[in-house]
Amino acid sequence: MSERGGHAEAAGGASGGWLITTRAAAVGLALLSAVNVLNYFDRLLMTVAAEPVKRVFALSDTQLSLLTGPAFVLVYVSASLLFGWLADRRNRRNVMALAVALWSVMTVLGGLARSFTQLAIARAGVGLGEGGSNPASLSMISSYFPPEKRGRAVAVFQACGMIGILLTFVVGSWLVTAFGWRAAFLVAGVPGLLCSLALLAWVREPGRGVPGNVAQVLSLRASLGLLRTNAAYRWIVLASGLAVFGNLGMMQWLPLFFIRSHHLSLRQMGVFFGPGLACGMMAGMLIGGWIGDRLGRTGLARSLLLCVVANLILTPLDWLVLWVPSTRTALVLTFFASATSVVYAPTLTAAMQTVAGVQVRGMAAAVFNLVNGVLGQALFPFLVGVLSDAFYPSLGAEALRMSLTVVIASCLLAAAVFVKATRVTAVADRTARIRLPA
């Protein structure tokens, strides 16, 4: 594995010579986090607008899952590879500014769509732009902060994504209810264009390495080859891909579940469901970042145990959300399930960046996005839509509940793969190939 990693970074953290100034790092993290708010807002706006969009275009659940799943995600993860390659070679701040501007324009075009095909193309365009967000952002954050602080920095970045989720359900649902889904998409594109300009004006591009150990620029083939031979990275990425349905995949369908099975209105979704989901995720992210950094002081593998425990707990929690008869109880459980679904995310993301190494951080985040997107945000959510349509003749409105019950079992498989990832990483810890400073 390659964080010539651990030792080089430890030296840099001690000297501080290669780290960008604290002020510049704070400004960079703040604006990158603001971009992540918009990332999730624009991404999930289609989830909030799902029912009115379905009525306007007379869509099936399978077609609807294409808009929230493959039409967005497959382009998103493919674009991540391109942007990851660029992030390892070009100015990452400029890559981010381009990506934000692109997805904001495509969000606006989604509001102007006059057919299912046009809307699917617009959503694909949003995915194209948002594919640049994580590779460049995570690479920059990893350059701004040393390993012993990286989990908390990633937690702040990811928690701001949860603010985006909160705003989607509170503000987005209000916009859709008050002015229609088209107006909501038109309004949503404006802040991103402003953020793109702010990135260019105020964010400083951080360095990529340490004195005397400047990261060598690798070809695409060499970058992928380096990641392919990195056993700890491979297992971490596979486990994450299986686990991500528990948060982002479920998030695509839970609003419709509460509308169909608990008969909540769109306005009630914004008042009750959205804040519970988003606040749970924010709490989980911030607590998880702190726990992960503390666990990681004695070895990277130990911090990954948080991933195993969280996924084992999440499966029965999600089943309870789906099957308790009380709407109020289901909403309360949604808070705890959403917190559990992301409590390990900062630790996981920081660990992925640490084991990958400074030479391929952008590409590592891109492949991470690709696997997460294909499995957890496209394949599994699409399977939910297919199963829901298949169950509908016999179960009616309860078909979605049953299909989610079946697919959430993927979190158990994720827990098992995380066990393997922890063992492989422990071997690397023992051989001192990746070690975080105390």
How would you portray this structure in words?
This protein is mainly α. It has one domain (5-209, 217-430): Up-down Bundle (Growth Hormone, Chain: A). The chain is built from 20 helices and no strands. It is globular, with a radius of gyration of 21 Å. The protein starts with a helix and ends in an 8-residue tail after the last helix.
Oligomeric state of the chains in view? single chain
Give the name of the CATH superfamily.
MFS general substrate transporter like domains
CATH class: Mainly Alpha
CATH topology: Growth Hormone, Chain: A
Please compute the radius of gyration using only Cα atoms.
21 Å
Helix count, DSSP H or I runs of 4 or more residues: 20
The SSE string, one letter per element, is HHHHHHHHHHHHHHHHHHHH
Counted beta strands: 0
Q: How many separate domains make up the residues? A: 1
Tell me the structural class. mainly alpha
- Strand content is under 5%
> What would you call the shape?
globular
Helix content: over 70%
Alpha-carbon distance between the two ends: 20 Å
Sheet bearing the most strands, described?
none
Low-confidence stretches: 1-20, 210-215, 432-438
Mean pLDDT: 84
Please identify, by name, the CATH architecture.
Up-down Bundle
